[in-house]
Specification:
Chain A is α/β, with parallel strands linked by helices. Chain A is built from 16 helices and 11 strands. In chain C, α12 packs across α15. Chain C folds into 3 domains: 291 residues, no CATH class; 114 residues, no CATH class; 58 residues, Arc Repressor Mutant, subunit A, CATH 1.10.10.410. Chain C contains 15 helices and 17 strands. β1 of chain B pairs parallel with β2 of chain C.
Chain lengths: 495, 96, 491
């Protein structure tokens, strides 16, 4: 196994055994970024010096025999909407291309306190709006396994970095599937925790009631390791759940017996390709053979999730994005007066962002709020209840993540809604605030990975990890994020 | 309902969003499409259903009335595009 | 062409006024972050990522701000909502860091209260529609001081995020004078409750006024004008008086008053229509997803109610009963809680409430007004005043010298004895010393002396005055009187 392709846990063993130092590992991965990233485009900013300094500090602590954090010295990357003190943070937007924040996000603080080196900031759709990372104002990110395809989005850079061995883990954010969909496209594990489990302080907001930070890793156990670092109450985030988060690695028991799995019939429809449906059903069958029970369940309001999601997301995000007005930070375009200056500055926003701001401005109108936003918020309650009822009968739901494997870069759609419809399997989870994990469960005819989604009840993150770990041990004991590709190399010829 | 480019431009104006004519045209068509999906929500009877306005159901999250250190002024203003005498500076407020 | 004179009946109009009062709360820290709320700091030194609205930041509600708002509600006889939540009010302005203000639109904390006060010998009651909690914006300074002409503006975000309550009255106020008196009473209640320091000159209290006219007897409201930029209670009254005249003239011409926002120009003494765009009226309120709703525990409300101090009207009543003061005195002394406290401390140190009241209502309040000072800034102490009054009582100084000494004490805080000694102001009560002066005055004013001898007793006052002049006011007037009588009047 190549050094850069180890899991977090494998690397930790080698570090503990002093077979390799964190500085060596970090240098190795930085070299890989240098060689490979010009082809992949996962990173917007690489913080080599800071990563090496943290790596050396972790090495020294280990050498002194100090009790170090399990993740000390294990380098990874951060989506560029996670705020880093002293390191440019752009959210993929031209309006923030020059912004160097004076503070750290809570998750960043936790990683630094654990002695975890940060390699850099990864590419993303502008303000996390998109599903291909193509709305980034800065560059394209290519799918590591087919350079003509999208890595997914909006956390495409993070997914691609972990897939291509340019980091042992990465953090992303998920508002309607932005971790799970790129994890599926790039063939890695991606988890969106329960809303409120991980602090949003320092996550550049898209839709405040939906956003959640989560990890990308090469296997399920690593996701639990990352969650252990970033989860837990934060007094700076009023929507952060109180109390200590559990030890998620304790949930890692491969035990199919007694596991009750539900297949929501609304997620196996004509909009989802046959090979994706088959792969997900195959995964369910494997768990059933190992002793789990599998039954069909229903989420009756599922077909309304997309409509409700786009109302809520556009209303909240257009509100959150008002602050990019050229006054206090970021780019300012010249204007004779303040309205002209603000209008010129905000003209720098990309078309996807503008689309959602205009829609959200409409939806928040005095006359429109009850008709659209509040109605969507009520439908959201119905969706939550659907899930609650399903979880009375089953422990986890098993669904596809995306209708197809990774689509081509520059994909053309007939209508805007057709593009948004690809989020059909992921958005309801955010509306209900639930934990969900995406991992590879097979390979499509095009040789690209197919994603599988585990959904659990609110704060059933350990339950989700346990089910996913059980499946991984049955199907991909080498680590789902590596095993599916069976020696496939990163595609560097595609452009 | 159907969006017109004029409507899109008016909404963009209120959002202080510069749009080209071509952007306004395109957005009008796209938003009409997205709003159709939202119109489908009207098929559902939501009478008496409480809206879900938060990602997590919490109440009474407070902080104490305790003063903490502020940012040094240099750090607070470091990213401001225009600064004068410790203030953030903007062009004239009233439209010409 | 025949000329036709329209004789319009002169209509009498009823004035309908409602007020919106913004009061900054006296918490130590801001409402969403830990930055200090202290007034007067260097610009942009009491700011952090949260109150600057930096990307990624989130608000966390200062519990004390809620407590202060509840206290204000209780003091204004409101009912407190069992639960409340926040909304975002959206508009673009460079002093508003997030391009929305966190406020309460649908679910205000307090509703349906009132303030009672005396006006023209009758008790008036003005309803409070609701009170909600919100955040301050930053402070803008315009080059050349005037918004319209300024080529650029400067922003200080120290104020951004200071907690604020907005008190919205019912349209119950019927005259500009009543608006001012209501505001004086409201201010005094808020100060008593220690919810706000209500310093209009520092902007911690601001007032907008809505005014409309309607024919007497009508129950329908007329079009209202909203008046902004009112920098003092006097300005409120003046601006409203101007509006009454302006709107009356418009209505009497048979025209319609425009529903609009108007700006009070203090120097010109007029209101001017402000340019607004229709679409800017829509603030696109939406629920604030970053702050969970809060429930107000009735036990908490009761604890806060128990903390409420005696309110101005209660205190006035007590002063009348306990100190046997006239209602007028009690009203003046209790308008400002700090003056009332000062009064009670003086009475504790000296006794004789009516004498203390006279000194405070006269000299003390006059000097406060002249200096534009606040009670807490004045170096004079209640013990100092007691000492001064004792010196007057003992005849060490005269009452009129006492006023001079008082002014000195008020400004310097020196003791009365020290000032009297330093300036040689002791009353001359030495009979021998005064007798010489009295004899000299009689000698120099033979005519007056003769009149007194002839029984014209009112002229004795003139001679007393002459003695006082020669002694620079230090002679004991009682003794001078006696000495003059001994010499001029045959008993």
């Amino acid at each position: 196994m190549e050094l850069h392709d180890l899991t977090v846990r494998e690397l930790r063993q080698r570090l503990a055994a002093k077979e390799v130092s964190s500085a060596e590992v970090t240098e190795h991965v930085l070299r890989r970024i240098e060689q490979l990233d010009p082809h992949v485009g996962a990173y917007l900013t690489v913080t080599a010096d800071q990563a090496l300094a943290a790596a050396k500090a972790a090495d020294e602590a280990r050498a002194r025999g100090e009790a170090v954090h399990p993740l000390a010295g294990v380098p990874g990357g951060l989506k560029d909407n996670i705020v880093t003190e002293g390191v440019r943070t752009t959210a993929g937007s031209r309006v923030l291309e020059n912004w160097t924040p004076p503070y750290d996000a809570t998750v960043v603080r936790r990683l630094k306190d654990a002695g975890v080196p940060v390699l850099g900031k990864t590419n993303m759709d502008e303000f996390a709006m998109g599903s291909s990372t193509e709305t980034s104002a800065f560059k394209k990110t290519r799918n590591p396994w087919d350079a003509g395809r999208a890595p997914g989005g909006s956390s495409g850079g993070s997914a691609a970095a972990v897939a291509a061995g340019m980091g042992y883990w990465a953090l992303g954010s998920d508002t309607g599937g932005s971790i799970r969909q790129p994890a599926a496209f790039c063939g890695v594990v991606g988890m969106k925790p329960t809303y409120g489990l991980v602090s949003r302080f320092g996550l550049i907001a898209m839709a405040s009631s939906l956003d959640q930070i989560g990890p990308f890793t090469r296997d399920v156990a690593d996701a639990a390791e990352l969650l252990n670092v970033i989860a837990g109450h934060d007094p700076k985030d009023s929507t952060s759940a109180p109390g200590r988060a559990p030890d998620f690695t304790a949930a890692l028991k491969a035990e199919a017996k007694g596991l009750r799995i539900g297949l929501p019939k609304e997620y196996f429809t004509e909009g989802i390709s046959a090979e994706v449906q088959a792969a997900v059903r195959q995964a369910a069958a494997e768990l059933e053979r190992a002793g789990a029970t599998v039954e069909e369940v229903s989420l009756p309001h599922a077909e309304y999730a997309l409509g409700a999601y786009y109302m809520i997301v556009s209303a909240e995000s257009s509100s959150n994005l008002g602050r990019y007005d050229g006054v206090r930070y970021g780019r300012r375009e010249a204007g004779a007066d303040v309205p002209a200056m603000m209008t010129a500055t905000r003209a720098l926003l990309g078309s996807e962002v503008k689309r959602r701001i205009v829609l959200g401005t409409f939806v928040r109108g005095k006359e429109r709020l009850p008709e659209y936003y509040m109605r969507a918020a009520r439908v959201r309650t119905l969706l939550r209840r659907d899930f609650e009822q399903a979880f009375e009968k089953v422990d986890v739901l098993l669904t596809p993540v995306t209708p197809t494997t990774a689509f081509p870069l520059g994909r053309r759609v007939r209508s805007q809604m057709e593009a948004y419809a690809a989020d059909i399997c992921t958005v309801a989870v955010n509306l209900a605030g639930l934990p969900a994990l995406s991992m590879p469960c097979g390979v499509g005819a095009d040789g690209l990975p197919i994603g599988l989604q585990f959904i659990g009840p609110a704060f059933g993150d350990a339950q989700v990890l346990q089910a996913a770990y059980t499946y991984e041990q049955l199907a991909w004991p080498e680590g789902a994020g590596r095993a599916w590709r069976a020696g496939k190399e990163v595609d560097v010829d595609g452009h | 309902m159907k969006f017109t480019p004029e409507q899109v431009r008016a909404l963009a104006g209120q959002a202080r969003l510069g749009l080209t004519d071509e952007e306004a045209e395109r957005l009008a068509a796209q938003l009409t499409d997205v709003l159709q999906e939202a119109e489908r929500l009207k098929e559902l009877d939501v009478e008496g259903v409480e809206p879900t306005l938060f990602g997590v159901q919490l109440v009474n999250v407070w902080r104490d009335d305790a003063v903490e250190a502020s940012l040094p002024r240099d750090a607070a203003l470091a990213a401001a595009p225009d600064v004068q005498d410790g203030f953030v500076k903007v062009p004239r407020i009233v439209e010409e | 062409m025949a000329t036709e004179t329209m004789v319009k009946p002169v209509t009498e109009y009823e004035v309908v006024i409602g007020l919106e009062i913004h009061a900054e709360l006296l918490t130590d820290a801001k409402v969403w972050c830990g930055c200090s709320t202290k007034f007067g700091a260097e610009p942009n030194t009491q700011v952090c990522p949260v109150c600057m609205g930096l990307p990624g930041t989130l608000p966390v509600l200062n519990r004390e701000a809620v407590a202060y708002a509840i206290k204000a509600g209780l003091a204004l006889n409101c009912s407190i909502a069992p639960e409340a939540r926040f909304d975002r009010k959206h508009y673009f302005y460079p002093d508003l860091p997030k391009a929305y203000q966190i406020t309460q639109n649908d679910h205000p904390l307090c509703r349906r209260g009132y303030v009672e006060f005396e006006l023209g010998g009758e008790t008036r009651r003005v309803g409070i529609h609701h009170i909600h909690l919100e955040e301050e914006a930053g402070k803008l300074m315009h080059a050349g001081d005037r918004l319209m002409e300024a080529e650029y503006s400067l922003i200080d975000y120290n104020r951004a995020g200071i907690p604020l309550i907005e008190i919205v009255t019912e349209p119950d106020i019927r005259s500009p004078e009543e608006a001012r008196v209501f505001l004086e009473n409201l201010k005094s209640i808020l100060e008593y409750t220690r919810v706000s320091d209500c310093r209009m000159e520092q902007g911690s209290l601001r007032v907008d006024a809505n005014i409309s006219l309607r024919p007497k007897g009508s129950t329908k409201f007329g079009n209202k004008a909203e008046i902004k930029n009112l920098n003092s209670f006097r300005a409120v009254q003046r601006a409203l008086e101007y509006e009454v005249r302006r709107q009356t003239e418009i209505l009497q011409r048979g025209e319609e008053v425009a529903a609009e926002t108007r700006h009070w120009d203090e120097t010109k003494g007029v209101t001017v229509a402000m340019r607004t765009k229709d679409e800017e009226d829509d603030y696109r309120y939406s629920p604030e997803p970053d702050i969970p709703p809060f429930e107000v525990d009735p036990a908490w409300v009761e604890r806060l109610r128990a903390q409420l101090p005696e309110l101005p009207r209660e205190k006035q009543q007590r002063f009348v009963e306990q100190y046997e003061l006239p209602a007028y005195d009690a009203g003046v002394l209790t308008a400002d809680a700090k003056v009332a406290d000062f009064f009670e401390a003086c009475v504790a140190a000296y006794g004789k409430p009516k004498i203390v009241s006279n000194w405070l209502m006269g000299e003390f309040l006059r000097l406060l007004r002249e200096d534009g000072a606040e009670v807490q800034d004045v170096p004079l102490t209640p013990e100092g005043l007691a000492e001064l009054l004792t010196l007057v009582d003992r005849g060490v100084i005269s009452g009129s010298i006492g006023k001079e000494v008082f002014e000195d004490m008020f400004r310097t805080g020196k003791s009365a004895a020290a000032i009297v000694k330093e300036r040689g102001l002791e009353q001359i009560s030495d009979e021998g010393e005064l007798a010489a002066v009295v004899d000299q005055v009689i000698a120099e004013n033979e005519d007056a002396a003769a009149k007194v001898r002839a029984g014209e007793m009112k002229t004795i006052g003139f001679l007393v005055g002459q003695v006082m002049q020669k002694t620079r006011g230090k002679a004991n007037p009682k003794l001078v009187n006696e000495l003059l009588r001994a010499r001029l009047v045959q008993e």
